């Protein structure tokens, strides 16, 4: 296995795992807690956001970001131009649809929720907080899900040209 192939395999694994995480949140976690009352929903979501920031998740998240940068660099001067274009497009989709969306969309909403003293809020304040976070966060996560799946598929497709 060449260093190019290793970088591609690593990026494929990491973006595939991240696609699974984002899909699970969109498909099961958020719809599941979406059934809860405002206080239960916000407490559950707040707790999950705090727990997910663990070394395993951080390693996967940052590893996927870094590996999608490295792969196009590895294939830049390659005689296999198809692969370069597949991995470059994959990099752009992942960075725009996952990294930028996370930094500019999901994280600010997570921080608002994290700083909220849910027990001290009125029913109306809880409802307002949930309405201001839930739909936006879900939409951003849907973008991350689609982007990471498309990235994974592009990386996987590029292996057919080796």
From TrEMBL:
List where the protein spans the membrane: 52-76, 83-107, 142-161
Matching entries from Pfam families are given as: Anthrone_oxy
Q: Which UniProt keywords apply?
A: Membrane, Transmembrane, Transmembrane helix
Per the record's keyword annotation, is Transmembrane included, yes or no? yes
Organism superkingdom: Bacteria
Q: What is this protein called?
A: DUF1772 domain-containing protein
Q: Organism, per UniProt?
A: Flammeovirga agarivorans
């Amino acid at each position: 296995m060449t260093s190019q192939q290793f970088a591609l395999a690593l990026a494929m694994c990491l973006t595939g795992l991240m696609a699974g995480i984002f899909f699970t949140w969109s498909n099961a976690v958020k719809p599941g807690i979406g059934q809860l009352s405002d206080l239960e929903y916000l407490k559950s979501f707040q707790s999950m956001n705090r727990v997910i920031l663990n070394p395993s998740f951080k390693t996967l998240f940052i590893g996927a970001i870094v590996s999608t940068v490295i792969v196009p660099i590895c294939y830049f001067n390659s005689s296999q131009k198809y692969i370069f274009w597949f991995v470059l497009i994959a990099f752009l989709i992942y960075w725009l649809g996952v990294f930028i969306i996370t930094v500019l969309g999901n994280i600010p909403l997570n921080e608002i929720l994290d700083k909220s003293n849910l027990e001290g809020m009125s029913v109306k304040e809880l409802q307002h907080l949930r309405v201001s976070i839930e739909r936006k966060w879900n939409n951003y996560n849907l973008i991350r899900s689609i982007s990471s799946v498309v990235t994974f598929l592009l990386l996987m497709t590029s292996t057919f040209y080796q």
